[in-house]
Amino acid sequence: MQATEIRELNDQELQARIAELREERFRLRLRAATQPLEQPHRLRDLRKDIARMMTVLTERQKGSTGSTGSEGSQGSKGTATPKAKRATKAAKTTRATARRGR
Q1: Which letter does DSSP use for residue 79 in this model?
Q2: Residue 72 region, left (φ>0) first, then alpha (ψ -120 to 50), else beta?
Q3: Rounded CA separation 69/23 (Å)
Q4: Residue 3's pLDDT is what?
Q5: Angstrom distances, CA of residue 56 to CA of 7, 15, 25, 32, 63
Q6: DSSP 8-class letter at 39
Q7: What is the C-alpha separation between 81 and 62, in angstroms, rounded?
Q8: What is the largest CA-CA distance in the chain?
Q9: Which has fewest Cβ within 10 Å: 2, 9, 42, 47?
Q10: How far is the C-alpha of 26 from the C-alpha of 33, rounded, in Å?
């Protein structure tokens, strides 16, 4: 499904369509576990269609029109304070230590 087609749907239709595609993907994954699929690429197509629809929903919730200006295009890179960076490093160290069993 093309992004232009997705943008024409309202939020309720999008959510219903996402639920249908997730159900279809679930059934295909079960069938793939027991027998070879005739169209194995259908799993990938479903996953990408769901992602496209979720992206449109997220844009609508945030009030974005889909255009990316200079604001926000960088994401959160370079905005962390030194204290936040130390906290993140400490959390990573703690997780690594826990994995080693120490």
Answers
A1: -
A2: left
A3: 36
A4: 84
A5: 7, 11, 20, 29, 10
A6: -
A7: 25
A8: 54
A9: 2
A10: 11
Share of the chain above pLDDT 90, in %: 57
Alpha helices (runs of H) in 35-71, residue ranges in sequence order: 41-62
Tokens of 1: 């499904």
pLDDT at position 41 is 96
Q: Name the residue range of residue 33's domain.
A: 1-65
Question: What's the predicted TM-score (pTM) here?
Answer: 0.59
CA atoms of 45 and 70, how far apart (whole Å): 31
Q: Would you place residue 83 in the very low, low, confident or very high pLDDT band (cuts 50, 70, 90)?
A: low
Structural domain tally of the chain? Answer: 1
Residue 77 located in a structural domain: no
Residues 72, 62: Cα–Cα separation, whole Å: 12
Q: What is the pLDDT of residue 63?
A: 87
